[in-house]
Automatic annotation (TrEMBL):
It comes from Prevotella lacticifex. GO terms for molecular function: 4 iron, 4 sulfur cluster binding; catalytic activity; metal ion binding. PROSITE patterns: RADICAL_SAM. The keyword Iron applies. It comes from the Bacteria. The lineage of its organism: Bacteria, Pseudomonadati, Bacteroidota, Bacteroidia, Bacteroidales. The keyword Protein transport does not apply. Gene3D superfamilies: Aldolase class I (3.20.20.70). Residues 17-263 form the Radical SAM core domain. Keywords: 4Fe-4S, Iron, Iron-sulfur, Metal-binding, S-adenosyl-L-methionine. Its cofactor is [4Fe-4S] cluster. This is Radical SAM protein.
Amino acid sequence: MSTVIYPSPIFGPIHSRRLGISLGINLMPSDGKVCTFNCIYCECGFNEDFRPKHRRPTREEVAAGLEAKLKEMHTQGVHPDVLTFAGNGEPTGHPDFAGIIDDTVSLRDKYCPDAKVSVLSNSTFIDRPAVHDALMKVDNNILKLDTVDAEYISNVDRPTSPAYDVRKIIEGIRSFNGHAIIQTMFMKGTFVRRSGDGTPTTIDVSNVDEKYVKPWLDAVKYIAPQEVMVYTIDRETPDHDLRKASHEELDTIRDRVIALGIPCTASY
Ligand code: SF4
């Protein structure tokens, strides 16, 4: 298994398909993964295979690490296009997420005022007022919504809380009043799900069919985000039976979003 556990709290810069020269900010421990989802396509692997022993970086450690890296990049004449909160799990779960966003915006204004601040989130904490308010301060509030089908979510995104309710998530994304970018993974293939006694069941995890695309499009229209990003598997995944959605499938979905009057990009 060739999955990626990122350094913490700062990694990169790396060239992102969607974001340009991106300096990564990882609010999770450096030796494992902490996420409220356990996606079968996660490039960091399955939660149960990468339980961390270390703690998360503190707010102070994040600010110090980011400032040191921005100074170093400035000296080298390298200018980030974006400061991206991503890494080994869900960034908005950090208890000081709101303060870290304030620090990051200040450091961005000081060292690289043209750079955007982006947060890649699975949307599970957007009902927390402090998280919501912090996300309103970032340039790119990128929120995952892979489908609106509850069974598909439980098979593919696999929320760790039984209280997860996609209808509430849709309302939560809508409450940003357009200050949100929906990010959706489209893929094909199969996944072997095991019941409590270990009995395997092979399930189809394609979400490119109309059964999934039409209700998702209806939700996108209802939310009215500033933009939608559709993408597919790019790196190695912990489940090796997953397949990429085709260019044609992604382009068709992208064009249907654009037909709703919402900008949309497709990454292959
Ligand atoms: S939400 Fe992101 S970090 Fe969490 S399991 Fe899914 S892909 Fe991995």
